[in-house]
Amino acid sequence: MIIDKEKLKQAIPGDQYYRAVLGEPAKVGSKYWTYFCKFHPDRKTPNLTVYHDGGYRCEACGTKGVDIFAFHMRLYNLSFHNVLKELARQYAPHLLSNNGNGQQNLPKKEVAYHDYRGENGELVFQVVRYDPKGFRQRIPDGNGRWEWGLNGTKPLLFKLPELLASENIIYIVEGEKDVERLMLEGLTATCNPMGAGKWKQEYNVWLKDREVVVIPDNDNPGHEHAQKVAETLYETAKTIKVVYLPGLEEKQDVSDYLEVHSLAEFLKKVDDALAFFPEKRNQPDCEEGDKKRTHSQILIELASGAELFHTPDGEVYATFEKVDHKETWRIRSKGFRRWLVGLFYKKTGKAPGAKALTDAFGVLESKAQFDGEEHQVYIRVGGSNGNIYIDLTNDRWEVIEISPEGWKVINQSPIKFIRSRGMTALPAPVAGGSLDLLRPFVNVRDEGSWILLIAYIQSALRDRGPYPVLDLQGEQGSAKSTLVRLIRALIDPSAVPLRTSPRDERDLMIMAKNSWVLAFDNLSTIPSWLSDAICRLATGGGFGTRELYTDSEEALFDSQRSVVVNGIGDIATRDDFRDRALIINLSPISEDQRKDEETFWNEFYEVRPKILGALLDGVSVGLKNLPEVLLNCLPRMADFAKWATAVEPAFGWSPGSFMKAYSQNQALAVELGIEGDPVAQAVVALAEDNEISGWEGTATELLAELEEKVSDKIAHSKPWPKTPQTLSNRLKRLATILRATGVEVELGSRQGHARRRIITIRKDTQKTARTVLKNDDTMQNNLFDAVAHEGDPRN
Is 453 in a helix, a strand, or coil? Predict the structure, then answer.
């Protein structure tokens, strides 16, 4: 069924639609409304401007679009076709009639005007767009009126003055709407009048020696038009690329692509595309004896030397040999294309056409998916048969093999490593180093924090989790960001070592698929959704988001990653995050102790190979000792605790050093949890007031009691629970840290005729925070016993 989108757009009252979705506007202007933005978590400042024509832009997160369709598609992650159906059912059901567009021989209506101007900016002619869809050209008659038709006027390119004034890449698209969409993104774009198939040779003069990118609409006329434009410009333009955007439905275009993809994603597709070379259609490309073969057939034959395979997630890859090593790349990656095009050039002395590559990749992907074996792929760190492998990410594709007997650098990896854009190389490790070489570069002064830092790095060099989350805190000037950069330089170096907070779970998943260590810098707070996602990422659980351009398919990620965050204050406010966190407070660095950046990093890089060697010694010792490690009391992060205990002998730590430091850190997490939560503080005060007999009552009664323990300001603040149900849910999350301080909270089942749920709060004098802090051994036993009540230590 075809739905006329222009007619549907006219049928939707913009103010009614946005009020239904966003509520009442915070501000009403003469040409716009202002709402709170639903695309980022800020609820303090209304940043989303919605214009009366349906376009929108958020000044905070940068989200923008041209109409209600774009907004609805992005908000609900629907395909464009389903957006039309959903909105038509709600606002214009007559458009869903059998004829597909609801038209009843209504007259056409002018809906847009596109001025075509000459080299000096003078108006030459105008294209009028109609609803139902149609176009006509007209020229000015010199008397303020129009004459229909071009009447011999020489056609020219749309936005010609802007094209001539720009020195940037020129994007050629199929229609005026797409030109205006790209120019809205700050790009230089043009098109010819009258649509696909109407490119003229005389247009080439304006594109001589220019870099040109052709973006076709996703249909046969669009593809043929792009091919014709590229072939016509081949002898004229400096460079030409034809970029086929992935994921588009039939007849969709670059404007549709940009509604759900960022400009950066679009530009990456352009950057990854190969240069265009003409390919004679229906003619043999090469001849060998009597056998004639096309470019795509030759490419497929050349790829027969590669191992094509798929992962458990259905992604398709190729492993191929290059001189003295093997490489693994996704089939449509730049790395695989570069290898295959190189083979083609050596064989034929030519470069393959873009269409031939596209056809060949389609066949190779099918071979990998349906004929190839299934293999797991790894990024930076992986494991096999009890050994751990670390990708050095150098040009020789060397890896470090770590076993219980030691470590070494090998040329051929037994597992398949892949690489993402931005990954940089680790140095070749040097044996005989010591962690004493690392200490001068790290602003960690107490021994307990030093042990926790090394334990975190050791866990990140292991191929399996759960992994703790490193939470670095300290005032400005305490070298938090420098320490994060240093950690990444030792484990997973990157061209962009520090990241800001991701926008949503999709962004987080992309980061996790492309990095082994995720480092989030200078956070002021961690929103609840990100806190939960980091917990799942560090200790397991996975997450998924809907794939773009699909209604039900999910993109899944079920691996674990090491995560480090830093901020000035206590940014971890949720208890499950604190349970997984190693909290290290950094002291400010005095002026006389500071070094300039160049000196600091030059000195560090000089000793980095020996530091890495010492860390690898620790991993090897951990592999050897891990089967023998037994802990009397298992903490929440039991697997991590066992691993950190196993590596103790490698660094000369006395037995139990890690557990002592870790238990102190867990006690600090409990203390911060109580201090940062007014409900927890009020419950502790209530338990102390009723230390002998305890307290019993309903959630309603408890809420009233707790409000007596806090100020009016706190009771009326946003974090304070406003309903009994909210309080009950809050108590479930606080149960662990309250138990660690000696306060037991039990949410009983419903009782009696009135089905009242009774909450019991009592003080256990054997588990007070004061007792915990007085004696390390008691602290360890009490805290670990409290956490053990939660069940599976991985939960």
Answer: helix
Count of C-beta atoms within a 10 Å radius of residue 472: 27
CATH of domain 435-663: 3.40.50.300
Smallest CA-to-CA distance from 566 within 488, 644, 622, 632 is with 488
Cα separation, 205 vs 646, in Å, equals 72
Shortest CA distance to 720 belongs to which of 689, 683, 763, 769? 683
Question: Which 3-state string (H, E, C) describes 192-225?
Answer: CCCCCCCCCHHHHHHHCCCEEEECCCCCHHHHHH
DSSP string, 52-68: TTS-EEETTT--EESSH
Q: How far is CA 698 from CA 704, 711, 724, 748, 762, in A?
A: 10, 22, 8, 10, 15
Q: Domain 677-763's class?
A: alpha beta
Q: Which residue has the higher pLDDT, 158 or 792?
A: 158
Assigned CATH topology for domain 5-96: DNA Primase; Chain A (3.90.580)
CATH code, 155-272: 3.40.1360.10
**C-beta separation of 317 from 330 below 8 A:** yes
As a whole number of angstroms, the distance between CA 436 and CA 614 comes to 10
Per 3-state DSSP, the chain is made up of helix, strand and coil in percentages (nearest 5) of 40, 20, 40
Locate 536 and state its tokens.
């799942």
Q: Which one has a higher pLDDT value, 221 or 779?
A: 221
CA neighbor of 566 nearest in space, from 454, 453, 424: 453
Does residue 261 contact residue 80 with C-beta atoms inside 8 Å?
no
Q: Specify the pLDDT at position 364.
A: 95
Find where tokens 């604190």 sit.
578
Count of beta carbons in the 10 Å neighbourhood of residue 590? 8
Q: For residue range 331-345, what is the model confidence (pLDDT) as tens digits?
A: 999 899 999 999 999
pLDDT of residue 210 exceeding 60: yes
- Read off the pLDDT of residues 126-139 as tens digits, 9 standing for 90 and up: 998 877 777 888 89
Arithmetic mean of pLDDT, 526-536: 88
Where in the chain are the domains?
5-96, 155-272, 286-375, 435-663, 677-763
